Amino acid sequence: DDVYCVWRGEFDDQTNICSYGMDLFQRRGETWVRSFEEHREYAYSQEQLTGYLKDAGFTHIEVFADRLFEAPREGEQRIYFSARKGRRK
Description:
The chain is about 10% helix and about 50% strand.
């Protein structure tokens, strides 16, 4: 009841960058105070990220679906990686 958020976003297919802005309104007594945040997220393919991990010396690379310990499906919005680097003690 005391916070309101307006979210705007767009994805640029040329640069693979998602830009989004948020206008945040918070009630302070009888007044609403506005603040603003702007974010940019870079999108990479699973293959690109796996390659970057290998190039950086990571091994045992595994990929999981969003918040699940199973392989990601086609069109998954977010995936998670598990990888090792160096020796385990």
